[in-house]
Batch of 4 targets.
Target 1
Amino acid sequence: MIDEALLARIFQAALRYGGEFSDVFAERRSTLAFRLQNGQVHEGIVVASTGVGIRVVCGESAGYAYSEDISEAALLAAAQSASLIARHSPAGSARAARIAGHLPTLYPQRESLGDAAAFAKLLERAESTARAADSRISAVNAHVADEVQEIWIATSDGRRVHDRRPMLTFGVQAIAGSGGQRGSGYAADGGRTSLEYFTTHPVEELAADAARIALLNMDARPAPSGEMEMIVGAGGGGVLLHEAVGHGLEGDFNAKGTSLYAGRIGERVASDLVTIYDDGNLPEERGSIACDDEGNPGAHTVLVENGILRGYLLDEINAGVLGMARTGNGRRQSFAHLPLPRMCNTYMPAGTSTLDEIISSTKHGIYAKSFAGGQVEISRGDFVFMIAEGYLVEDGRITAPIKNATIIGNGPDIMTRVTAVGHDAQLARRHYTCGKNGQYVPVGVGMPTVKISAVTVGGTADA
């Protein structure tokens, strides 16, 4: 989007009053989305945006300005604004461009959005399948969104990177009702892929799953309350790992000393059964990035290994503060935002136990197959999560589905209570979006089935 001659003038203006280095993030994004409700496809949305953000880095802080106007005058004005914010720091300088090597091929490099008529047919097929599952399905909602984000990154130290990132998401909600009882179920799929993905992963499977969960929740019994064992389901259970542990491993919280994990590299922070990775290099996964939003390659980062803390998720600034290598986790929502250290695809690898072994070893507990959402207090790791699909486990057997179950605990604490890890590790193909400092980025989560010896459950029935 910006030629080398103009980049040189931008960096000259950006570093005029000081700063260690500067970078330019240019973006062009196109989005197409539809929603189905009450049997009709509507709320069609087409959005296109273009803009440039300019940053001047000064130690642990940065000056930042952006513009939706990409004329030379507007970009030089933005560079000057960023420089004024960052003045009083040592002067930096621009170097000759060094083009980055070929980025890994992690997703289709498509230039255009998918076919609108084809998306509408997918929504109609999903609704038809969900309603046909059972006469008690009273409503079906579905949505699809397709996006292509093209980015160009240039830094004053000579880095030049270009990437084109697709993102496709499809979700189905089914609502069941009968005799005064109601239940809701949701299923989703997608990632950095294209419309052809749904030829081998039919939306009918999502719709059937959403209807199954809705019917299950309609007939489920009230959840018990109290402290008990918990089995966390493979795949979607990874959202617990993301929220309760992952955020505490992001570099800014550790550089500031506000995380429970600050200064603890090399220490035991979890059961020796626990290993946690973050990976930006998984093909077509939602959180994958060939390069991060600072131009660094996405990477496989070992965070916890057999219970020992090995590393943090780092962007340029916090890597410098901590004196550690950057990990390719500098991410931003758009050109209008500063990059922050963020997760990509955070997951736990497979263990050795079978699901049957884990269930049969559970005397009194719950099986949280998937979660509906929750929140975490990062400085302490305290969390609250709602279970979307859950079951009661008694004397080594799954006995009944439960509803209205909430789990309450502390992330670092429950990681020390892991007593079994299944061999069924998988990533959850849902459209998880992580919020931080008002910014939202797509992420992936995953894990095998995991048993935790004790967790507090909030329910409406006695334990």
Target 2
Amino acid sequence: MRITVTPETFRLAERFTISRGSRTEAQVLTVRIEDGEAAGRGECVPYARYGESMASVAGQIAALPERFDRAELQDLLPAGAARNAVDCALWDLEAKQAGSRVWDLAGLPAPGPVVTAYTLSLDEPERMRAQAAKNAHRPLLKIKLGTPNDMARLAAVRAGAPDTPLIVDANEGWTTEIYADLAPHLVRMGVKLVEQPLPAGADEMLAEIARPLPVCADESCHDRHSLEGIAGKYDFVNIKLDKTGGLTEALALRDMAQVQGYGVMVGCMVGSSLAMAPAVLLAQGAEYVDLDGPLLLAEDRDNALRYDDAGVHPPGAALWG
């Protein structure tokens, strides 16, 4: 079994900003695993918020033994970007070896298209209003917030897209006091869900204050081990492959979260269609889906995912799975 790791860069269509900073390109690692006859691919996005870099993730992958299977991988690497790329590449390899599709191997129903949110980058209110108006036709908009001027931004987006359902993502940017003050306004403006209003590890007050709209754990929930720590504080979990460490753990987390009464959102980092492809399988039946990474790019993979009025479609075999 031969593993190669290739750093790649995809230009963004526009500067993308959240409360932690801005970027103009997506830097990803592409993993290719060959067995001499077939090859599988996976993609990950190392994330500094979780102590990852392109070099550190590539180093984790390089340290893997010469041969292992997908079950053994779960113990060889921790949840995170490195395991995600390898896990997804192994799923792709297994499908190609079997001449089948990943959903058949996983015992899942054949997937269909899923409606995805489209994310509006954090910006000055008037620019966010213009972006909202430009994208008001979309079925769901996600707004990046997490600053002292968020009320003006939210009002501007609602003015630009008066009828479009909204999700708000604070990216850990608020305090308990700010969130308690903003929450009634979020409800009034028709926001359906708020992601990670408080910093992970400092979110205990969510169990004690009123939650007038559903609250979704993002940075506070990585894999199944996270569920115990978020009990009573969150209503939804945002499952991302780069957090869970691949499709294998993501499917297990989804099932356990649903059994425990959580709603499910399936999200992504800003990556290419190769990163989104496994997540489309995961997103089947999810209440909220945010797999818009390729829509934010100026360039994408060959055989890219198809987006249309029905949403994002499952990948063709030439892309993944």
Target 3
Amino acid sequence: MIATEPLLRVERLIKRFGGLVATDAVDLDIMPGEVHALIGPNGAGKTTFIGQLSGELRPDSGRILLGNRDITRLPPHRRSHLGLARSFQITSVFPDFSVLDNVALAVQAHAGHSFRFWKDAALDTALGEPAAAILRDLQLDSRMASLASTLSYGERRQLELAVALASRPKLLLLDEPTAGMGPEESQRLIERLKALRGRFGILLVEHDMETVFALADRITVLESGRVLASGDPAAIRNNADVRAAYLGDDDAQA
């Protein structure tokens, strides 16, 4: 059965910082399994908007619903247990632990277990097996025994994604996933994300337009805290207002 109800619904969200309206009555919805990209020029309000979704910032008004649950006032850890995960905002791995241990600890945290056995987490099959499965999905299984500190930058980003997936999200917030990567590493990550599409919803915040158009089912463009346009990639690529505000004529013709 095709899902008809949004996984995430944002209604008239407003956030002010003094006289600055950083989020100006934003409406947005994400369907189950959809990759929805959020783009806009610097200062458009993307980071503030994502902060409200993750629970790090409290909106002044409006609602955020995950499924049928109003999560507007819930703290980040409650949102996580309801199925919302955020990745790539900050480094979220332990450099002196193995790749497998990092993911096993994330599985353990989501299950609500204590951290009494820090370095033995991966030895518990209830933790190690699902952690190993996630790493296989991301084609990082050859590095399971390696210390996180020995990973390349792109591999570390993949590990951060694995840690986020350990919470079994319904919705994953990806904040600039390809930032700092070279072309080959970016392409590898894009392919990993393509392989995962449909398993959960993704809200992708990304400056790189090649990444956005390669992954997104729909795109929402913010400008000065407002929604300038929202639609499928073809509609956004050909939107004159979007070209003028953000993409530029050359990018729109690519």
Target 4
Amino acid sequence: MPWQYLSKMSSNERLAVLDEMFLHLEGPTTHMHVGGIALFEGDAPDYDDILEMIARRLQYVPRFRQKLATVPLGLGRPVWVDDPHFNIEYHVRHTALPAPGSRAKLNRLVARIMSQQLDRAKPLWEFWVAEGLAGNRFALISKTHHSLVDGISGTDIMSVLLDPSPEPPQIERDDWRPSVEPSSDRLMVEALRERLTSPGEVMRSVQSATSDPAKLPGRLIESLRAMSEWVGSGFAAPASSLNRPISPHRRFETVNVQLDDLKRIKNAFGGTVNDVVLTIVSGGLRRLLQARSERVDDLELRAMVPVSVRADHQRGSLGNMVANVWAVLPIYEPDPLERLQVISESMTDLKSSGQAVGAQLLTSLGEFAPPTIVAQASRMVARQRAFNLVVTNVPGPQIPLYTLGREMLEVYPVLPLSGNTTLGVALLSYNGSVGFGLLGDYETTADIGELAEGIEKSVAELLAAIP
């Protein structure tokens, strides 16, 4: 459990450069929050019981009681500070589906929740309790700003807020009192002090790198090669109906498959589970575009695939520790086995190309850039079309989890859409199953159900091909 790591977060900690970029990417139609939908067995607990359960565990996720303070004149990145007006009832909300509470109605509720931006003046998260789901079930819907979490740290938070057994642990409420909120003058002075001292940090890094002069040329060449491969690969996504201006509103669909089925396919035909996932998504996209009467015979799409660069000692820390690679999706290939072969070979080449290393290096360099430059770079990223969609696959806990004695049966992640990307695919494995969360723009993906059906058919095709 990452409790001991999460509980060490302090106030007045400055936002990392990648986390800040997610703030700048947000706009009227682009909502930079991630989310999750968890389905539980049984009747929904009493709202007051859920409030109390979450209130007792906030001591393990201090960031959930902190908000962002902006440095005057943009002289530094924003700082996490305690919210003196924190009110848990604002963040934990209660609703019910109209009877009969179908999955379609739940998906519409999720889409509406994900269509609303989080209030930057408050801690950047919300939980919704949705009761009335058919089959004697209820749902918990989470929404957290991407500047606060990435996929891996998101699953760490889930392990804090959920229990590994039906009997919840006894947790005493902490006597939390917010620290004094820093003044604008203090924020500006601290930012200037950091700017004045950062050259010393740079020099120490250079001295460390040059401590073995024989290795320096190789390190520089390796770093420059990785950066050039990342930049050179990232700005030529093919034209597609998946890339159009989007509205503020969303649609949501889910698909659930068995993790053992994906492993059976991998073991039968080679590659990795992630290769199988990309093959399945490619098959689903092929059917979606065919249903739109688009030409797919020579179409090759590009997916941005986030890769975690979080070290073991960083597990439990919040913020984003990811780099990205651009995966080729052979939409042109009708044969699912040939599609898997193409993707497996392509991903093997990507792993050895240094793309992820290059992306991580560019992000690290951003730590030394002024906030205005980071903001301009974020807006440039939002305008270009480096990829057709995002496909992210996060490994989750493989044991049953519970809340107030109710077992979590299914879980589906949600990722944000950028300004010119109408569709995103997120996966999370949990207790032997894999939940696909499909988020689309409301105006341009009324046919998002075609993608969900296409993914299901792609899984069935590959399973049927196993000898």
